[in-house]
Amino acid sequence: MPNSPKSQPFNALFCDVVQPQILDIHPYVPGKPVSELQRELGLTYISKLASNENPLGASPAVSEAINRELTQIARYPDGGAFMLKETLASALQVDSAQLAIGNGSNELLELVARVFAGQGDEIIYSQYGFAVYAISAQMVGAKGVEVPAVDWGHDLTAMLAAITENTKLIYLANPNNPTGTLFNRKQWEAFMHQVPDRVVVVLDEAYFEYAHAQHSGATYPDGLMYLEQYPNLVISRTFSKAYGLASLRIGYLIGCREIVQYINQVRAPFNVNHYAQVAAVAAINDQEFIEKSVLLNQQGMRQMTLGLEALAVSFIPSSGNFICLHLGDKALEVNAKLLAEGVIVRPLANYGLCEFLRVSIGTQVENQHFLDALKQVMQVILNEESSHHVK
Fold it and tell me: Which of 59, 96, 100, 283 is a plausible cystine mate for 253, CB 3.0–4.6 Å?
């Protein structure tokens, strides 16, 4: 008697008809939620340092703006995000027709791939680059070309050498997530000068506010400064990091009018909800909050790096709001023990960084919670090893 549908293993019913490239996609793995750890261990105090969120939350102006709009909850949002585009255009000194708004910058990164690449095409990205780049290539059936990293960051020279007649798209992140590495203005300009005009370059600046404050204009390239010179350049940014709107899922893309028009042709109607748009407008208008957030991150990064040096833990210098720790073959064990201490960080095995953990910069109290827990965990591991050797 044939097996009933319920007894079939997962995806056995449809694996022959689903698009073949979908079968090999490994879904993006988000950071562990606080509520999940609370359910598992019953902890009352947890420091979540896994998802590069703003530890200050969002500007108070955001909450006020959302509260004023609660009567509109039954209405569809503005599908064209007119007010948000006008506010962004003024702040960035671009034309509103150069802006596309997305459900987080993730959606826009994927839409660019849908517009420009398909079967037989190639999409280039760096080893240890953001996971969504490889996923986007797989989704459209293009060949993902992963270029080996240098010093945990982009090797722009090697990425240029990887360009072929089939290359349609290049993803770059500056700073890079999850490693925090940066390429400088000189390297960037030499790269763009040599990229063929037919190849679209996506510059992911999700951590722009942090990097721009940390580095002078001579060393850090602001993508906006190159848009007029390079029509094949598009820039993605987000409100999820420095602006503290991660739960609302809103990001934006800046490019030439033609590319933005193509993005809007495949963008879902009403892809960004009303409250995300309202919140983003309020957030843009409170740059004092951004300055406060950036300053807190700079202070927290110093606290974190000094603490790690005191513990003799090596790390990759970072230009974002997170830091990558090298813990060798103890990384997963350290992560498990940190969870028991109420500290959530990010394992990076899915990036091929099995010996690393990524830690977001939090408040002074959260950072110290992590450093104290890490010290305790490392001592426990050392004691366990010593006990094992004695036996």
Answer: 100
